[in-house]
Design brief:
Elements: E1 3-14, E2 17-28, E3 32-36, H1 43-51, E4 58-63, E5 75-78, H2 90-94, H3 96-101, H4 105-118, H5 134-146, E6 152-156, H6 164-181, E7 184-189, H7 192-198, E8 201-205, E9 212-217, H8 228-238
Parallel strand pairs: 3-7, 3-8, 5-6, 6-7
Antiparallel strand pairs: 1-2, 1-4, 8-9
Helix pairs in contact: 4-5, 7-8
Length: 241
């Protein structure tokens, strides 16, 4: 697999305070990478830099699409809160990016129905966000992010606000969505078990200022269950944090 994104010596400062120091790693096309670390280590700052919301104080981020074009805005973000437009229906929320891009109505409608089926929400397209549970809202947010077919999906603790049972269900569904779409996903979490269940590789950050302590490749087949194999990896990662 070729690298889709590469970080070279990326550092970031808020004033005189260093939040990230000399971050170096690459993410291959189609890879699922988790950024794991304690609260305050710069995980979300790193994701905001990758999204283009923040500019690194030093270093370089190299993005290259499958056709060797610079992807630029070909990145979508899913946050901890769904941030849906409350005045729009589910259908209109999911198609929002496609409408802004100028896609034809027929194309938009087909894409929305395809994605709602993928995230298990067929039949709710006319509902409003307030009529949905937290888990359903997050599925809509994932569908909206996937709609323009981005090269990279960034996820900042997207299941952090959900209860434990729903979080487990959403983790399993995300694995299925990734298997179907083949998307490159960079996923921020402080939950060690979650990182082992989801990731091909885990980038472990130190406490602030965030530096890479180790990059761990998880060689377990999907779907992964909460069994001894997973918890052996969890134990290894606990020794790093």
């Amino acid at each position: 697999m070729s690298d889709l994104i590469r970080l070279k010596s990326v550092s970031h400062y808020y004033g005189n305070q260093c939040t990230l120091r000399e971050i170096d790693f690459s993410v291959a096309d189609g890879e699922f990478v988790c950024i794991l670390g304690p609260s305050g280590c710069g995980k979300s700052t790193l994701l905001n830099i990758l999204a283009g919301f923040l500019t690194p104080s030093s270093g370089q981020i190299i993005l290259s699409a499958r056709n060797d074009d610079v992807v630029g805005h070909d990145i979508k973000v899913v946050m901890q809160n769904a941030h849906l437009f409350p005045w729009l229906t589910v259908h209109r929320n999911v198609e929002f990016g496609l409408r802004m891009r100028g896609d034809a109505k027929e194309t938009r409608d087909a894409r929305v129905m395809e994605l709602l089926h993928l995230v298990g929400l067929s039949g709710v397209e006319s509902k409003y966000p307030a009529q949905l549970s937290g888990g359903m809202q997050q599925r809509v947010a994932i569908a909206r992010a996937l709609a323009p077919d981005p090269s990279i999906l960034l996820m900042d603790e997207p299941f952090g606000a959900l209860d434990a049972q729903l979080r487990r269900r959403m983790q399993a569904e995300l694995v299925q969505i990734r298997a179907v779409t083949g998307k490159t996903i960079i996923f921020v979490t402080h939950d060690i078990v979650e990182s082992v269940l989801l990731a091909d590789r885990i980038v472990v950050l130190t406490t602030a200022p965030g530096q890479i302590k180790k990059i761990v490749s998880v060689d377990l087949e999907h779907p992964r269950e909460r069994n001894r194999g997973v918890y052996d990896w969890v134990f290894e990662l606990e020794q790093l944090l």
